[in-house]
Automatic annotation (TrEMBL):
The keyword Signal does not apply. Keywords: Transferase. GO terms for molecular function: glycosyltransferase activity. It comes from the Archaea. This is Glycosyl transferase family 1 domain-containing protein. It comes from Halarchaeum grantii. PANTHER family: GLYCOSYLTRANSFERASE WBBK-RELATED (PTHR46401). Residues 169-304 form the Glycosyl transferase family domain. Pfam families: Glycos_transf_1. SUPFAM superfamilies: UDP-Glycosyltransferase/glycogen phosphorylase (SSF53756). Gene3D superfamilies: Glycogen Phosphorylase B (3.40.50.2000).
Amino acid sequence: MHLPDAGPENPYQRDLANALEDAGVSTTLIDPDGPGLFAALRAARGNDADVVHLHWLHAFYYGDNLAETAVKSVAFALEVLLLRLLGFSLIWTAHNVVPHDVDWPTYHRVYRRLFVSFAADSVLVHCPRSEDILIETYGLAECHREKFHVVPHGNYIGDYANDISHEEARETLSLDDETTFLFFGNLRPYKGVEGLVDAFERLNAPNTHLIVAGNPASERYGRHLEEVVGNCDDVTLVAEFIPDDDLQTYFNAADAAVFPFRDVLTSGSVVSSLSFGCPPIVPDIGCNDYLVGENAGIVYDPDEPLEDVLTDACNADLVSMREDAMLRAESLNWGPIGERVADIYECVTAR
């Protein structure tokens, strides 16, 4: 049983559930509208589950204000205690260190440290570096390392339409022969879009174009990005929700996708980029290096000026890199991932 269900806009849980079903594990996704109090306990008992697999943990203990957070935090702690007393196994996939753009990051670290230390049977991470980051950031004792299991993030091949060519996509977006960089994803402050636009404006390379496409976190932030882009030459801002069927147009049109995150553990946007065969350009933080590998994109030192990174990308063989990006995505096959998670379930339920 997996919860909270992130909904149809995020294919990760459904791909994992399908892979688990193929591995012989009956899987249910719970509560697309938010977990509510004691949702995990109610769902576990109502679905005859053995394993409660949690994903975005803050949905259970974090509220819109201090009072709501206090109530949810106490309720979830009690809920976890009851789940353990009733014999359910608890698994958590750590998609991030703390939620993005939230108040009280220290509180999140402390709450998660307590959850890992006293509640979780296993913690799934998407790369070896994540394990080290979480143990250090949460201040976990080394004895808890045995709870961690590295399970790669699977690809999104087949989750989105992908039936137009590079040339057709560029024609749709009225692009000529310029080297085109793309930023795609929900537009939020931690993703570094402002720095990307600034770096692109300083880029010492002719015949280049930047597209920034995605749904802004708020109308105010969308207006802010419009001001940032302003009259920037060769920068296109598409600050709106992009339907799933249109992802192929942007990723297939781009020569490379740039994700200058300031803080990230695992990025679904990078996985999406690889799954369209679009080489990602990412800082060497979190799981980026593990995801991209050697030749499927460019992984740069976060201290390196971004305009220098983009200049190097203009001089790189981005055509062959597209082929390597697709090969890397294909290697992130959900079949072995489902079998790996099924083995972890078997181990925790046998204890």
